[in-house]
Amino acid sequence: MDGASPDPGDDELRAALTRLVRQLVQEDSTPDRRRGEDLLPILDAHLGVAADELPVLVEQIMMHRWADTDIALAELVARDPDARLLGVGGGDQRHHSSLSDLMSNAAWGRFRSGQVDRLNVATGPDTERATVGFGLHLFRHAGAPMAVLQRVGSPEYGSQARLEVLAVDPDAAAAMLAGLRDEAMRRSVLWRQVISFSGNPYGRSMAGLTFHRRPELPASHVVLPEGTLDQVRAHVVGLGQHRDRLREQGQHLKRGVLLYGPPGTGKTHTVRHLVSAALDTTVVLISGTEMAHVGAAAQIARAHQPAIVVIEDCDLIAEDRDHHFGGGASPLLFTLLDAMDGLDEDADVVFLLTTNRAEALEKALAQRPGRVDLAVEIPLPGEADRGALISLYAANLRFSAAAVSRAARESAGTTASYAKELVRRAVLVAAMDGREPRDDDLRAANEELQSDTARLTRALLGAPGDTTQNLPPSTTS
């Protein structure tokens, strides 16, 4: 009520609450309860000035460069024997706070030193690195004191991977970052790796990149018409061995190679051999849904040359606009063309393309050197090559030469995939009987695959001709 005298009980309640708050603050500030050190005095002492009055320089880091950055920063910091690495406590809120925010709140005792967060990332098909996920580096670079907050990006907190730098001299901070970029490139974990954009959760992956073991596939395991493999290998691998001479004489190094032919004839097999032979080369593999990353693949190749960008079934994005639905080109076609044209002439980068439909490819692919300089057909194997393929896949089996020759003769018009499946079926028949494969098993498997009931199977294995006649429309479209 207006004019009513104060209730003594209210005064007592307020006094009790005040005493409680003071007690809680006093208890929370005692050394045995407050762990860690106040960040702001540490930064002030290291930098020699009031740290929260300095501007913060931010460097965004792409996640696939995170391991490179961590390695390079560790190298720079290690040059100072008095360097320190501190964690930052304060719960999830620290992930929402910039370095400036952390310093502002540190004045109230909110964020204190704590444990360093670590993020384990792949650095190869068999290696990994525990990088700094959230940590504060205090060190001197070229005599200048600086502090660098290293923090990994997190979709959960809507943040990007970045470095936040404090230094009294902005030029010193800029120089440190420039040196860091150079060091990160020199020590990049992507050099001479085989990678894809598959983001395989069961493989060695980092930020959407998956590391693959380089295949081991000798030339003796590639069966092609005489001279074909030598021609392709010379253009992809051999040309790079003369890169210095070509550059001296003003000749371009970037090049495009197209392998075309029916499905199952060995185009991917040939690519695997080329990748295995180019040991000092960075390889980026693209196929299927990964086509959207063709621009990023070209950037990685440019930065880590000599490099090969493999684009399997390139007709999926490089289909001629006259064949493309609606009469327009795929948007990714222009990304591919820009990626191929955007490289310097002396860039030692190969675009290695495969397709089952060469007739449908966009003509613009061949309009400039460095797009497609060499197109090589990988045809259906002849009888001698079919025999060689069967012998290759049956290398550890005891089929007679006569049985192999007969199977090759009776499988005219089939592919390398057919030969591989033929041997597998012969082995399966014998395994089901609990014995070693015999010539009769190879003959029975071939007869089974050549029967009318196996027409669709032959089509799926790449056999052309009348094997696809009278099949349901959905299987021949």
Write the layout of secondary structure elements.
Elements: H1 8-28, H2 39-47, E1 56-60, H3 66-78, E2 84-88, H4 99-106, E3 113-114, E4 117-122, E5 128-141, E6 144-151, E7 162-167, H5 170-186, E8 194-196, E9 204-206, E10 209-212, H6 228-238, H7 243-248, E11 255-260, H8 267-277, E12 282-286, H9 294-303, E13 307-311, H10 331-341, E14 349-355, E15 374-377, H11 383-393, H12 401-409, H13 416-432, H14 439-450, H15 455-460, H16 473-476
Parallel strand pairs: 8-12, 11-14, 11-15, 12-13, 13-14
Antiparallel strand pairs: 1-7, 2-3, 2-5, 4-5, 5-6, 6-7, 8-10, 9-10
Helix pairs in contact: 3-5, 9-10, 11-12, 11-13, 12-14, 13-14
Q: Strands of the biggest beta sheet: in what spatial order? A: 9-10-8-12-13-14-11-15
CATH first level of the largest domain: Alpha Beta
C-alpha geometry: elongated
Helix content: 25-40%
Radius of gyration: 32 Å
Descriptive notes:
By secondary structure, the chain is of the alpha/beta class. It folds into 3 domains: 39-186, no CATH class; 195-377, Rossmann fold; 383-476, Orthogonal Bundle (Helicase, Ruva Protein, domain 3), CATH 1.10.8. Helices cover 37% and strands 17% of the residues. It contains 16 helices and 15 strands. It has helices at residues 8-28, 39-47, 66-78, 99-106, 170-186, 228-238, 243-248, 267-277, 294-303, 331-341, 383-393, 401-409, 416-432, 439-450, 455-460, 473-476; strands at 56-60, 84-88, 113-114, 117-122, 128-141, 144-151, 162-167, 194-196, 204-206, 209-212, 255-260, 282-286, 307-311, 349-355, 374-377. The strands form 2 sheets. It has an 8-stranded mixed sheet with strand order 9-10-8-12-13-14-11-15, with helices on both faces. Strands 1, 2, 3, 4, 5, 6 and 7 form a 7-stranded antiparallel sheet that branches. Helix 10 links the parallel strand 13 and strand 14. Helix 11 packs across helix 12 and helix 12 runs parallel beside helix 14 (439-450). The chain is elongated. Residues 27-32 and 466-477 have low confidence and may be disordered.
